[in-house]
Design brief:
The protein has about 90 residues and is mainly β. It has one domain. It has no helices and eight strands. Strand 1 and strand 2 form a beta hairpin. It is globular and about 35 Å long.
């Protein structure tokens, strides 16, 4: 089980999310609309190119289109507010 937590700005607290499909660290995460994406990162076998998407409408992580290159320590900033911040 790969635990995931989401910080809810509206309630000023951390909430649990469904577990990722694969264990990874040093990844990037971004929220777009009602989805959260995990991008790249690494595990015991090395750098990853996989991208997982949490669809909050179904409450499940789904593998989506992988990146062309394996990356670790990805950095991404998205300034729009997440529409799902009221979920918990």
């Amino acid at each position: 089980m790969v635990e995931v937590e989401l910080y809810n700005l509206n309630s000023n607290r951390w909430v649990s999310c469904p577990s990722l499909n694969s264990r990874r660290g040093s990844l990037a995460g971004v929220c777009l609309s009602d989805k959260i994406f995990t991008i790249g990162g690494g595990n015991a076998t090395g750098c990853l190119s996989e991208v997982e998407m949490l669809d909050l409408n179904i409450g499940k992580w789904i593998y989506t289109c992988s990146m062309m290159q394996k990356v670790i320590y990805v950095f991404y900033i998205h300034y729009a507010m997440c529409s799902m911040l009221d979920m918990a």
